[in-house]
Amino acid sequence: MHACRDNAYEDALREYSDSLSLRPGVAAVHVMCAAAMVRLHRWRSGLAEVAQVLLLDPENERALMLRAKALGCLLRSAADNGQVEELRRLSAVPGASLVAADAHGRQPIHFAAMSGQLAVAQWLALQEGVSLVAADAQGRQPIHFAARSGQLALVQWLASQPGVILVAATLQGFQPIHFAALSGRLAVAQWLALQEGVSLEAADADGWQPIHFAAWSGDLAMAQWLAAAGASLVAADAVGRQPLHIAVELGHLEMAQWLTAAGLSLVAAAA
Questions:
Q1: Which of 78, 113, 187, 263 could form an SS bridge with 145, CB 3.0 to 4.6 Å?
Q2: Contacts of 233 (CB under 8 A, 6+ apart)
Q3: pLDDT, tens only, 6-62
Q4: pTM attached to this predicted model
Q5: How do residues 51-98 score in pLDDT, each as one tens digit?
Q6: Structural domain that includes position 36
Q7: What's phi and psi for 37, nearest 5 deg?
Q8: How many domains does the chain fold into?
Q9: Same domain for 67 and 10
Q10: In 3D, which of 149, 166, 169, 154 has the Cα closest to residue 119?
Q11: Are 58 and 46 members of one domain?
């Protein structure tokens, strides 16, 4: 989940950053950029090359690219960790972009939603260019990540913002209600179910409804609430699998027992 985490270089990074910060004329942002780039696995050449490119030849085209990548990593990490002041400071650095995306298309706003950082999301929403309906490479918007994080206040705030749709679907057809069911976010699921347009029978591209995701995760409390709220325990996905099939396949004994006690059977489900 975290945007920029790699402990492999911690000792070397600490030593390098300490020495770098003592050099005359070295800006603090250069230290941060170098540190961020060291933490990215793909830059195997290590500290020396990062230092050379970022510090000794700052106008080099490659230096600018590395700087932008480093700043993007730092911005996403700050959003992920709820650091509004750090975001404010970094966003003022020349070349920084609050919509810088990682390899999966996730921007700082996605990381804020992923970690349930309401204050960060609210601050980002006020910044030029930031969109609360920005989609990553899988079509996931902040509302999807917020539902998965289980932070109800964040979900409710996002839902109140212009353009945010509670039934928005990802490329695989996942809606926020699916993420809530999959992640066991009962309070979020219960609130979503009360909102206009949200259906407990909503199916993704594979025909999975929230009840299928509850069975997949073995979340009995979620499944029981879904059933009480009207979800069908015999709903079939695109290949005919019902919640009981999924629970048995994944070895969720308690879930399978509860479904069986509800009068279901594998024979009946397969019929």
A1: 113
A2: 211, 227, 242, 243, 244, 259, 262, 264
A3: 444 345 445 555 554 555 555 555 555 555 555 554 444 444 455 454 554 555 566
A4: 0.79
A5: 454 554 555 566 566 667 777 888 898 899 999 998 998 898 877 899
A6: 1-97
A7: -65, -35
A8: 3
A9: yes
A10: 154
A11: yes
